Amino acid sequence: MKYIWNWNELAEIRAGLKKEGKKVVFTNGCFDLLHAGHIDYLTKAKALGDVLIIGLNSDDSIRRLKGDKRPLLPHDERAFAIWNLKAVDYVTIFEQDTPFELIQTIIPDILVKGGDWSLDNIVGRDVVESNGGVTTNIPFVVNRSTSSIIELILQKYSG
After folding, report:
1. Fewer CB in 10 Å around end: N or C, the chain?
2. Which residues are bridge partners to 135 per DSSP?
3. pTM for the full model?
4. pLDDT attached to residue 142
5. DSSP string for 29-82
6. Which of 46, 47, 50 is nearest to 23 (CA)?
């Protein structure tokens, strides 16, 4: 069962979807511990178009961004969990600190990030909008984060 696509495969899939007139939505993240906030966010992202592609930070990328204690789960497991959500159509991994090169490769119609990102700070916005696409953010309704879950576990199980 395939649940991770490489960038070249996604570029071909994207070209086919464009010919079919399908709107491709893209978002990215670590998705280290899948929680209700992620599911709410990804469901809303998918509702913006026809196909949702997720760019998943690699393990090395997360370590550079969040420190040596993360990720908690390896990217293969994170990709499998994300891909099995009803809203998600494709998952790919990126090794870089940002998804800029990946966004340049697939050029989605809609680029989405969570409400904690201002539009001006969304990586790849220039690429998407210069190709006729839109960039947006989705406000968080479910107040949950991987960091808050880790803190809760530490509080409940330390000593």
Report:
1. C
2. 111
3. 0.94
4. 66
5. E---S--HHHHHHHHHHHTTSSEEEEEEEPHHHHHHHH-TT--SS-HHHHHHHH
6. 50
